[in-house]
């Protein structure tokens, strides 16, 4: 009974924090939008009006991202793992192509080291969310003074999918390393996100019975290493 009690305590604590934080983070952009609309209604200068519209769009985008993360969190908790076969290289390239639409992604060079002609069976949806969240962080927290890159490497070893994502971004201070996968934790004062992204990544990796490791240093980039177990008969060459 002891493990179940601990799981229940963890779930209740996360739920309390989730309700408190989401109510704040959902209301904050709405209040910003309402304030900007009030300014816009009384603004006669066209250029200032355009600035207000851009700020409204930014607030709406922020709230849309947060709602999307809430849905990811909810679906991961409720839905069982769904396995399907897919080509590993095509999968990674498709995820990166989706991420090229992110603000600032056009200044990031994507580097691939992917095993070609490898078909695996796994939860493609969860793996996609995991990879997208990690790429999104790399783009958001790129170093503006460097030629930014994101490198994605994959290999299959001992029935495990090993995926590594590294960047040369602003990095994460060592004092934050034990906290980065906590719900609503923001690892840097420059963070504009909800603090849910890496928590969702961690929870999804656990759902896939895998593990995730992080190496980072402030100002020196970040590397995430994923290890997702795959049964022998789930691996095939193309």
Written account of the structure:
The chain has helices at residues 2-41, 46-78, 88-99, 124-140, 197-207; strands at 84-87, 109-113, 118-122, 149-157, 160-167, 211-216, 222-229, 235-237. Helices cover 47% and strands 20% of the residues. The mean pLDDT is 81. It has 238 residues and is an alpha+beta fold. Strand 6 (211-216) and strand 7 form a beta hairpin. It has 2 domains: 2-78, Helix Hairpins (Orthogonal Bundle), CATH 1.10.287.130; 84-237, Heat Shock Protein 90 (2-Layer Sandwich), CATH 3.30.565.
Classify the helix fraction into a percent range.
40-55%
DSSP, total strands: 8
Second CATH tier, the architecture of the largest domain: 2-Layer Sandwich
Task: From the 3D structure, determine the CATH topology of the largest domain.
Answer: Heat Shock Protein 90
Strand residue content: 15-25%
Average pLDDT level: 81
Gyration radius, rounded: 20 Å
Strands side by side in the biggest sheet: 2-4-5-7-6
Low-confidence stretches: none
Number of helical regions: 5
* CATH homologous superfamily classification of the largest domain: Histidine kinase-like ATPase, C-terminal domain
Number of domains: 2
Gross geometry: globular
């Amino acid at each position: 009974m002891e493990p179940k009690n601990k799981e229940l305590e963890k779930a209740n604590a996360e739920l309390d924090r989730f309700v408190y934080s989401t109510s704040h983070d959902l209301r904050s952009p709405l209040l910003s939008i309402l304030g900007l609309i009030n300014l816009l209604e009384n603004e006669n200068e066209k250029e200032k009006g355009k600035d207000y519209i851009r700020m409204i769009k930014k607030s709406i985008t922020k709230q849309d991202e947060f709602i999307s993360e809430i849905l990811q969190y909810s679906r991961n908790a409720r839905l069982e793992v769904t396995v399907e076969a897919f080509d590993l290289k095509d999968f990674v390239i498709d995820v990166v192509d989706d991420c090229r639409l992110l603000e600032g992604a056009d200044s990031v060079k994507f580097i691939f080291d992917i095993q070609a002609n490898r078909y695996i069976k796994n939860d493609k949806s969860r793996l996609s969310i995991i990879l997208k969240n990690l790429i999104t962080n790399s783009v958001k927290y790129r170093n503006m003074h460097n030629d930014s890159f994101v490198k994605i490497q994959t290999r299959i070893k001992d029935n495990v999918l090993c995926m590594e994502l590294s960047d040369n971004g602003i990095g994460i201070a060592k004092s934050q390393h034990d906290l980065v996968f906590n719900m609503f934790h923001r690892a840097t004062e420059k963070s504009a996100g909800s603090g849910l992204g890496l928590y969702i990544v961690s929870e999804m990796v656990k759902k896939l019975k895998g593990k995730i490791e992080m190496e980072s240093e402030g100002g020196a980039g970040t590397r995430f290493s994923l290890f997702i177990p795959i049964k022998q008969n789930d691996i095939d060459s193309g």
